[in-house]
Amino acid sequence: MESRRPRRTREKLLLGPGPSPVEGRVLRALAEPTLGHLDGDFVALMDETQELLRKTFQTSNALTVTMPGTGSAGMEAACVNVIERGDTVIIGDQGVFGQRMQDVAERCGATVIKVSAPFGKTLPEETLFEAIDSHPEAKLVGLVQAETSTGVLQNLDAIAAKVHEAGMLLLVDAVTSLGGMEVPVDRLGLDIVYSGSQKCLGCPPGLAPLTLSSRAVEVVRSRKTKVQSWYLDLTMIMRYWEQERFYHHTAPVNMLYAFNEALRIVDEEGLESRWARHRRNAEALWAGLEAMGLTLPVAKEDRLPSLTCLALPEGIDDGRLRRELMERHAIEVGSGLGEFRGRVIRVGLMGSGSTANNVLLFLSALAATLRRMGHPVDVASALERAEERLDGD
Questions:
Q1: Is 346 part of any known ligand binding site?
Q2: pTM assigned to the model
Q3: Which of 268, 284, 305 is where one domain is finished?
C-alpha cells in the first residue's frame, strides 16, 4: 500500500472575509477528549457556553444556542423556523448576503418584498419604511447588519423601532459583526439574530450562534405547519439545549469545546474593549490605505470595523494581486463578490487577527505587491498615518 507523505500545512495570515486567525488555546481545546453528547460533563459545558453566548449577544433570551453549520446554516435555521408558506416578509438587499436571505425566504414559500441599495451603500431607511407601511401583513423584516460582500454596516436603531411599531419581527444577520462590534439584541429588541463562529469570535468554522426573543419563540411554537427542515427544527433543538436534553442530533462535541474557549477569550477581554480594538485597527488600516492614494468605496460612517473593501487601482488584476500576497507574504485576502467581483479586494481584521502589527504588515505587503505590479505607492506615508491612528492621534 502506498504510504502518504506527512501533512505539513503552511501557516498563513488570514486577513480575508473569514475564517479569521484562531488562537492556540482555541485549537488546543479541539484536541480535548471527545465525550458523548449527553455526557454530564459535556452538558455542563453546554450550559456555560449558553451563558457566555448570551453575554456576547447582550441578551437574556432563553433560546440562545449554537447550530451545527456555518453562518449560512444560521440564516437558514432563522428563516425555516419563523417563515411559513404564504407569509409576506420584507428583506433588505445591499449585497450578496441580503440576496441570499431573500433566496432562502423564497424557498420557504414566502412572498418576499425586496428593498435594495447599490453595492457599497446602506439601505435607505425611508424606502424600507415605505415597504413596511405598504405591507402591514408582513410577518418580519430581515436585514444584514454586517454585509460581508461589501463591508457595509447597517445602522439598526431607527429601523428596529419602526419594525416593532408595525408589529413585525426583526431578523438580523450578524455573521461579520458579533464579537467585533455591538450587536444590540436586547437594547433594540432584535427578534432573531444569527452569526458564525469563524469571524470576529475567532473560532474555526462549523457553528452558527443563534438567539431568538420570546416573541420569536412564540411564533415558532405556534406554527400551523411543521418546520420544513427536520435537522434545523428549533422546536426539537430547544429540547436538547434545555433541561430535558432530548436527543436530536449528535452535537459536534470538540467544536463546542473550541467555541466555549473562544467565548471565554471574548469575555476575558470584555466586549467594549474588544469593539474598541476592532475599531482602532480598522481606522488605522483606512488611514494607511488612503495615504497610499487608494480608494475605499464605502463611506467612512458606513464601514464595518471588521471588514474593509479596497477598490483596485486601474490596471491591477485582482487574481494576481491576491496570488502574490499569498505566495510572497503568506497573507490571504478575499476577492470581490457580486457587483464588486474583480473590482475590489476584501480585507478582514477580525478576532485575534485584528492587531496593530497585522495592519502594518498588510500595508507593507500591499505596497510591495502594488509596486511589483507597476503601481508604486507611498508606503512610508501609509505606515506613518496608520501608526498615528494606532497611537490615538
A1: yes
A2: 0.95
A3: 268
